[in-house]
Amino acid sequence: MQTFTPLQYLKIDIASAFGHDKWTWNERIAWFDQHADHMGELVHKAKEPAMFYAGCKAYMDAMNKVPSGYMISLDATSSGLQLLSALTGCRKSAELCNVIPYFGEEVEAQRRDGYTVIYRTMTDKIGEEGKIERDGVKEAIMTALYSSRAVPKRVFGEGALLDIFYDTMAEMAPAAWELNEAMLTFWNKDALSHDWVLPDNFHVHVKVMDSVKETVHFLNQPFDTFRKANQPMAEGRSLGANTIHSIDGMIVREMTRRCDYDMDQVNRIYDLLSGDMLIGGTKDENSHHAQMVKTLWAHYEASGYLSARIIDHLFPCTIHLVDPAVIHELLESLPDKPFKVISIHDCFRCHPNYGNDMRWQYANQLKLIAKSEMLSYLISQLIGKTVQVGKVDPEMWKDILDTDYALS
Q1: What is the dihedral of CA 124, 125, 130, 132, to 10 degrees?
Q2: Is residue 20 a part of any domain in this protein?
Q3: Using CA of residue 255, residue 259, residue 264, residue 266, what is the dihedral sign?
Q4: Of 70, 89, 124, which closes a domain?
């Protein structure tokens, strides 16, 4: 993974706010250096003028050695597709959204925009300029990956264009698209809710809400009214979206836990793992901490993903409940120093000093998910029986930490 200094991250942040967020890191830094002497003249031209102005002020403060506390902003490049790619081990899907590096014909890894790649592939097939617009294609992709049929139909109409869109999705993101389609078949037509538990013990409970029509009379005229009621539905399209969004939420929680950890607690756990304390603690199997360690460890054994939440519950009385080697690996994956992270969905912000650490931690989340049995774990809960779902490439996780643009 390419790394940068705090000043370089400020340059990247400013260039991104201006509108160059789809450029490579080096292109953004070069653009800043080219325009550094007249940044004030560009504020009104920026895509995000307030963020651009704030970034420029922070850069000047940094140059004058004035602490500002400014946080750079980095976005996931299509987090939904990233998660679908990681869950399925699909290299073609993963290259499309920067889960693994894509070089093409270049020496430097490229920052791919999956929406633009799919748009250009469609235009090549259609052969007519202006027949479709990138923004419309992006809207169709974003919603179709969450099982929407209505939006792609609105964008492309019914007919050849819509067929080309679906064919292109299946071609460019094959396993991710197949999983998206498969999620429709997991709908339980008799359920009042769909429920599952994530590896950090976050319980998801999504009620099934159907539309119910009632006819009321006013001035001797009938009027149809509609309300939502919690009742079974024969079919639904929300399960795939809700499942992926729940993993998105877990990543936000894990990024916060792993970046802003309690250093004193981590050092105490290292001490526990290092010697006599590993075997000398009082074992209270019924304590709150012991019960939570058992719960999180059971989720780990079922899913292959260990939540950093377990750090808060490891003490002399609970350390015997876990595999020390697995806990040591978790601790070693934490940044050298804890730091604050702010997130809005798949946009993460941190102080420029920690840009490298934040990008690595996000890539590590994708790696851990790709390496795990998360997909089997979740689908087993959705359908009520244990299943084992294979991956297209079970070894893809080994390449994820080499990616440059998972967060960009």
Answers
A1: -120
A2: yes
A3: positive
A4: 70
Nearest to 182 by CA among 233, 239, 232: 239
Q: Is the dihedral of CA 328, 332, 333, 336 positive or negative?
A: positive
Question: What beta strand segments (E) does 146-244 contain?
Answer: 193-197, 203-207, 209-218, 221-230
- Per-residue pLDDT of 112-131, as tens digits, reads 899 999 999 999 888 865 68
Q: How many secondary structure helices (H) and strands (E) does the chain include?
A: 17, 7
In-domain check, residue 222: no
What DSSP character marks residue 17? Answer: I
With contact defined as beta carbons under 8 Å apart, do 199 and 250 qualify?
yes
Is 47 a member of any domain? yes
**Which amino acid type is present at position 344?**
I
Q: With contact defined as beta carbons under 8 Å apart, do 200 and 307 qualify?
A: yes
**DSSP E strand stretches across 51-137:** 72-75
Q: Are strands 209-218 and 203-207 parallel, antiparallel or unpaired?
A: unpaired
Q: What is the pLDDT of residues 285-327, one digit of tens each?
A: 778 899 999 999 999 999 999 999 999 999 999 999 999 999 9
The DSSP code for 70 is: -
Phi, psi of 109, deg, nearest 5: -60, 140
**Domain containing 394: what range?**
261-341+356-402
